[in-house]
Amino acid sequence: MNLPTVLAILLVLALLAWYLSFQASRLDRLHHRVEGAKNALDAQLVRRAEAAIELATSGALDPASGLLVTDAASRALEAGELDALVHHDKDAGPVLLVLGERESAESDLSRALRATLPGTLPATLSADPRVGPLVDRLGAACHRVRLARRFLNGAVTDATRVRGKWVVRWARLAGRADLPGTFEMDDDPPEALAH
């Protein structure tokens, strides 16, 4: 082999190594972004449930509505953390564990809030200086949940897209990292609380 051929082969190998390193670091950044978005969503879901419980126990809602919201918010708080979304089974691949339970509990809370805070009731409650800040806090928490879920699902989509590239699969750049999953829930707030 002559020197130009050896140099060309070395250049190609160096470019391939650089590209694989670039893709690996990109994938690592995307997985960190997914983890950060997952933690942010978890925090916002907890804040929304706490705000719902605070409003429900304030006496501003009728007893049945207060009980419905408190029960749904308590189940949402007890449903589990988002950290345990995916378990990797050697034979079956990624297996969802608590995702459905948490999604279902959070969706139930959204439905309970819509059922107990219909139409102009939130505006009426906001006029009360004692309850107004609780309604505002709940409205802000519902808005932040929608944003956090959108960011998480966007990050998961980006990571999944990169992991689907043939180079990433061929070089096994994802290592043993679990495939992230989107968080699907009913996050529509009561109409009067929607921003």
List keywords for this structure.
two-stranded antiparallel sheet; mainly alpha; 195 residues; 68% helix; rod-shaped; 4% strand; 6 helices; LemA family protein
Task: Please state the CA-atom Rg, rounded to the nearest Å.
Answer: 23 Å
Low-confidence stretches: 84-90
Shape: rod-shaped
Helical stretch tally: 6
Strand/helix succession: HHEEHHHH
The count of β-strands is 2
Describe the structure.
The protein is mainly alpha-helical. It is 68% helix and 4% strand. The protein has 6 helices and 2 strands; from the N terminus they run ααββαααα. A two-stranded antiparallel sheet has the order 1-2. The longest helix is centred in the N-terminal third of the chain and has 54 residues, at 3-56. It is rod-shaped, with a radius of gyration of 23 Å. The chain starts with a helix and ends in a 25-residue tail after the last helix.
SSE blueprint and pairings:
Blueprint: H1 3-56, H2 63-78, E1 86-89, E2 93-96, H3 99-116, H4 121-127, H5 132-163, H6 166-170
Antiparallel strand pairs: 1-2
Helix pairs in contact: 1-2, 1-5, 2-3, 4-5
What is shown here, in short?
68% of the residues lie in helices and 4% in strands. The chain has 195 residues and is mostly helical.
